[in-house]
Amino acid sequence: MKSINKILNICSTLPKNTRLISTTSSNLNADDGWFSKLLVRRIEPTKESHSRMLSDKEIVYALHTHNIRPDSVDKYLKNYKTSVEFVESRKADLGCELVGSWTVSVGDMDQALHLWRYVGGFEKIDKAKILFRENPDYRALEKERGNFVRSRHLQYLLAFSFWPNGEPRQPNNIYEIRSYSLKPGTMIEWGNNWARGLTYRRAQNEAFAGYFSQIGRLYNVHHIWCYKNLQARRETRESTWRNPGWDECVAYTVPLIREMHCRILEPTEFSPTQ
């Protein structure tokens, strides 16, 4: 009870705009239990956007999520491969390139994810949209693709500056995309803690890329990891928990999350990263 009163007394002295996040403190006794995870951190006002502080806004990523009709997966993949070839043949004009293309093997089944990179920001995206709309061949491909999908979703993302930038991997790998819905106003805290947390995930080179949303579902974060197989994923994750400090990273970030889920991905034959 003394521990509870100690924390409550501390909290009662804080300014109204102080945010509490999960952390640890050596000043609290070991018997404080989960209350020792509460520590005050003031988030100072800033005139700079959070996205500018966390990323390079001149490179924008488009994450296309397509839910495919179960009886049309092969037709869909053939169509999308043709679309990728179309874009690659006009790369100089469109200013975009495919980073990765995957189908979901565990999680939301009959789903495909395609991640595109636009160097030049939203100006390049605006120009590409016009070129796509005015090209009859591309419009025909999109119209045909509509017969194979149940629904689609598009997010424009920025990359966290402290993550790897999604360079192509050699065959054969599986990927895991862990998607988080954060509480509004917590993106800087997330970035600060994960910038440290990634230092505990370097041994197996499993970190592929990390992004946060700009347009679409907001306060969404996507972390993409690369493993040889599911067993390698298990061993890598268990090894990470033995690293001193990783548990604190998790303790800091869990209170920032509203919802999370993961999907296991397999690269398509036309994906640049395998």
UniProtKB/TrEMBL annotation:
Database matches in Gene3D superfamilies: 3.30.70.100
Classification via Pfam families: NIPSNAP (PF07978)
GO process terms (BP): mitophagy
Gene Ontology CC annotation, any one: mitochondrion
Residues of the NIPSNAP domain: 61-162, 175-272
Family that this chain belongs to: Belongs to the NipSnap family.
PANTHER family: NIPSNAP-RELATED, PROTEIN NIPSNAP
Protein name: Protein NipSnap
Gene source species: Papilio xuthus (Asian swallowtail butterfly)
